[in-house]
Design goal:
By secondary structure, the chain is an alpha+beta fold. The chain is built from six helices and 19 strands.
């Protein structure tokens, strides 16, 4: 299977490539069999999967033709750091970082999970795709929220706003908690909501100590197929600039778009006349210029270093 960016994932001794998402490539032990659910990356055989973070970057549901140097290493290092911080809050899928040399630093050996088809989003601030919903009906993800809030304001309390996971190139669909329960069952839906809110509470506290606001984040959970294992395990990545809105506390100014540790430079350029791209015209997005690539990389590095307190060795 080709990766979405068009380049073939690397061949890795002892591992067989089974799936590529927007950013990650998934492998199973050689001979373990094809995936039972390619979108979830859940193989039919084998106890573990190898999850490799590439340098691909996506925007507006497109994987761009330009990569961001070191992005995969930064995402992996940040996820591993956060998994450690959250170890007493929720079990996670990480088994080992003993990975093949060609993907060292950008890969994790993880427990095989049967991923739930739900993007578990939690919002602590009013911004993004729910802003129009709030302005129209006074709700966020179907949950009533007090009137008078502006773009970038803190919500009275974090809100769980799940979405149905979509295939590569398609847009996730915001759904209600009741729709989540219809898809995965009420007991699991309650666990997903509870653990998502617990992760957000711990992460927001840690980020605040480092001068960063965690505006919102997206998590993915899966169930272990092994008897006696937890029913809801944190998987994929966690709390990176790809899956979260991080704002510097000193820059926070409610009333408009905030300066974020994410793909801001990429999105801004794609919307600019310089890109010459019509996102509704059906054509793929153009290659990114060198200065946008460099500034985007700088933001990823800055987010990693400010949150973890560790220097990134590029």
């Amino acid at each position: 299977m080709s990766s979405p960016a068009g380049a073939e994932p690397p061949a890795l001794a002892g591992w067989a490539h089974v799936y590529s998402g927007k950013v990650r490539d998934v492998y199973v032990p050689a001979g373990a069999g094809a995936p039972a659910d390619a979108h979830a990356g859940a193989p039919a055989g084998g106890e573990v999967v190898l999850v490799v973070a590439s340098d691909r970057i996506s925007a507006y549901d497109h994987v761009l033709p330009t990569t961001i140097p070191d992005k995969g290493r930064i995402l992996t290092a940040m996820s591993l750091w956060w998994f450690d911080q959250l170890a007493d809050v929720v079990p996670n899928h990480v088994v080992s970082t003993d990975v093949p040399a060609p993907v060292a630093g950008r890969a994790m050996v993880c427990r095989r999970l049967q991923m739930y088809p739900i993007e578990c989003v939690v919002r602590g601030y009013l911004t993004g795709s729910v802003l129009a919903e709030y302005r129209t009906g006074g709700t966020v993800g179907g949950v009533p929220v007090p009137a008078g809030l502006d773009d970038g304001d803190r919500l009275p309390e974090p809100v769980f706003t799940p979405a149905g996971k979509a295939a590569v190139g398609e847009h996730d669909e915001n759904i209600t908690f009741e729709e989540t329960a219809a898809r995965v069952g009420l007991p699991v839906a309650r666990q997903l909501r509870e653990r998502t809110l617990a992760v957000y509470a711990r992460a927001a506290e840690i980020a605040a100590e480092r001068g960063i606001i965690l505006a919102d984040t997206k998590l993915e959970f899966g169930a272990s197929p092994e008897p006696g294992e937890p029913a809801v395990v944190l998987g994929d990545e966690v709390l990176t600039p790809d899956s979260s809105r991080f704002w510097r506390t000193e820059d926070w100014r409610p009333g408009g778009q905030q300066r974020s540790y994410d793909k801001q430079f990429v999105r801004d350029w794609l919307r600019s006349p310089a890109a010459g791209w019509d996102r509704d015209g059906g054509a793929p997005p153009p290659a990114l210029p060198a200065d946008v690539v460099a500034r985007t990389r700088e933001r990823y590095v800055e987010a990693y270093e400010r949150l973890t307190g560790q220097a990134f060795e590029g």
